[in-house]
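My current task is to audit a protein record that another person submitted. Please read both lines and tell me whether the tokens look consistent with the sequence. Do not assume that whoever made the record got everything right. I have pasted the whole thing underneath without changing anything:

===
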Amino acid sequence: MSAFLRLTPAAADPETTRPAPEKVLKGDPVHTTWNAEERDGLYAGIWESTPGKWRISYDEWEYCRILSGRSVITEDGGEAFEVAPGDSFLIRPGFRGTWEVIESTRKDYVILT
């Protein structure tokens, strides 16, 4: 195994999931994840979602870069952040709110638990 890995869908088999039904606020979002790296509490890969809105709760750090689409991430009691291609951001542990996919969104991510 090489120490270099490109984050592309070819790097991993896709996994299809949905948010837990009790978290869904709008639509029927379907998530596809290509988790290319998973070790020692570190996860990296590509994630994609169809339109919908659901509750999110973070106990981990996540760095994201939007590759395509448009989403709105809203913190409980706080600001709404629209994200689009080229936007990079960090979600810290303790973040609570909603993620709404306006246009099918694809991001690459690195998660540290």
